[in-house]
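To illustrate the input format used throughout this study, we show a single complete record. The first block contains the structure-token representation of the backbone; no residue identities are included at this stage. The design step must infer an amino acid for every position from geometry alone.
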């Protein structure tokens, strides 16, 4: 339907922070038409995804339909599809259903996925990560069902019940720290007094980190403060603990030269990420994580019409003094890359040279739990309640849409004063054996014929 449209066609793959920012930056370019392709129908505010996984927020609070977000951008078309191949020579991409889309300029912003360091087949089924809403829903069910199963086994031997009340988080980056702190709060505050046969406060949350400290990207003193706050929340922080095995019943760890077994039915993976496999379709150099090594202007070598932004790009920040430094894989970096890619697309159409990317670092934040967080704003570092309040303000500010900001603010205010998490709903399909039940039949109840209403 676009074959007769003479406008320059920009195809954007992925509607994360980088792809969305690129599309919005081109909104006023009348000579450009945009096709944005994503395999989901929503833009996700990933920094708060762990809140959905732990029942603190509902999905609509951190996600917004892409079509709604771009409804007033008349030069943008949204397609819900999965890109499986890229032909640079023909300037076409292939979709999973066999269709092909042509382009004049391509922006690849397909993000990152989980990395299990070569053990994906063995570990992934037992240690889910957190990248999508589907991941969050499954993890939320897994966490809550662990307490339910422990309640069912309350009369069994302690050895049978213990694995259900052990929660292991692997990787002490921001996601791992946030998950561990929040899971400890759930056990000690949210679920308190809700069970009769078990004591949820006796659940153990273990945070395993292979290096010598948590939050490696932060300064050592902030890492130490974060570890102290985690311990105060009830998290067992174990640094120098290298995971060597994961199965359905627990985790094997090498620690101080010894191999230990941690029985646990709930394991969360937050130890590593890898670039989207789509990056390898570009047939250009990639780094060890599969990220595409881009030119200073974010295009790929030999193809100025192809840009890579966000977590898929191994980009360098080109400083004013001539030095370069790696760009961290955070949302501000992705958004800045999206804006620069859009600016360079326009510059190229006008015969101007591309601008080199320079990352503006606004600092780093990580929340740990109630009134606990760390903030690194360059010359200013702080932690505790002030950092937590600053973290709240920043995340509410960057949420998409007024409704989301308002709802999240109300939910957080309610949670703060009540210790409750009201999104603790488990779908029936998540219950053990539910997939085997006929539709409309519930294993927990039986209503005699003639008494149904």
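Output of the design step:
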């Amino acid at each position: 339907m676009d074959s007769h449209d003479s406008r320059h066609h920009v195809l954007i793959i992925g509607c994360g922070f980088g792809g969305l920012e690129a599309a919005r930056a081109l909104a006023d370019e009348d000579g450009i038409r945009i096709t944005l392709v994503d395999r989901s129908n929503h833009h996700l505010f990933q920094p708060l995804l762990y809140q959905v996984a732990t029942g603190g927020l509902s999905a609509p609070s951190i996600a917004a339909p892409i079509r709604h977000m771009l409804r007033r951008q008349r030069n943008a078309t949204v397609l819900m599809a999965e890109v499986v191949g890229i032909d640079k020579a023909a300037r076409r991409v292939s979709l999973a259903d066999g269709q092909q889309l042509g382009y004049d300029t391509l922006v690849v912003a397909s993000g990152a996925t989980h990395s299990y360091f070569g053990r994906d087949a063995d570990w992934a089924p037992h240690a889910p990560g957190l990248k999508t809403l589907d991941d969050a829903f499954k993890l939320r069910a897994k966490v809550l069902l662990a307490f339910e199963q422990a309640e069912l086994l309350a009369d069994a031997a302690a050895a049978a019940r213990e694995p259900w009340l052990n929660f292991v988080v692997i990787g002490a980056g921001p996601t791992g720290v946030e998950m561990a702190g929040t899971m400890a709060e759930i056990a000690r505050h949210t679920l308190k007094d809700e069970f009769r046969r078990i004591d949820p406060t006796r659940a153990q949350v273990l945070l395993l980190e292979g290096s010598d400290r948590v939050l490696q990207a932060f300064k050592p003193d902030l890492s130490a403060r974060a570890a102290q706050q985690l311990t105060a929340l009830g998290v067992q922080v174990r640094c120098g603990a290298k995971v060597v095995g994961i199965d359905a019943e627990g985790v094997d760890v090498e620690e101080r030269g010894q191999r230990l077994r941690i029985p646990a039915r709930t394991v969360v993976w937050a130890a590593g990420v890898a670039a989207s496999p789509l990056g390898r379709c570009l047939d250009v150099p990639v780094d060890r994580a599969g990220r595409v090594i881009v030119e200073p202007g974010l295009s790929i070598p030999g193809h100025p019409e192809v840009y890579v932004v966000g977590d898929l790009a191994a980009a360098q920040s080109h400083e004013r003094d001539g030095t370069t430094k790696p760009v961290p894989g955070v949302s501000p970096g992705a958004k800045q890359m999206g804006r620069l890619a859009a600016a360079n697309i326009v510059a190229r159409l006008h015969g101007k040279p591309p601008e080199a990317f320079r990352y503006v670092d606004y600092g780093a934040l990580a929340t740990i739990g109630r009134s606990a967080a760390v903030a690194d704003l360059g010359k200013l570092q702080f932690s505790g309640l002030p950092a937590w309040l600053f973290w709240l303000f920043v995340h509410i500010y960057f949420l998409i849409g007024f409704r989301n900001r308002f709802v999240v603010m109300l939910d957080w205010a309610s949670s703060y004063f009540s210790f409750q998490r009201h999104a603790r709903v488990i779908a029936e399909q998540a219950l053990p054996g539910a997939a085997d039940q006929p539709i409309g039949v519930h294993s927990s109840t039986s209503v005699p014929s003639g008494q149904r209403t």
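Structural context for interpreting the output: The longest strand covers residues 32-38. Residues 8-39+81-114+274-349 form a domain with the FAD/NAD(P)-binding domain fold (CATH 3.50.50.60).
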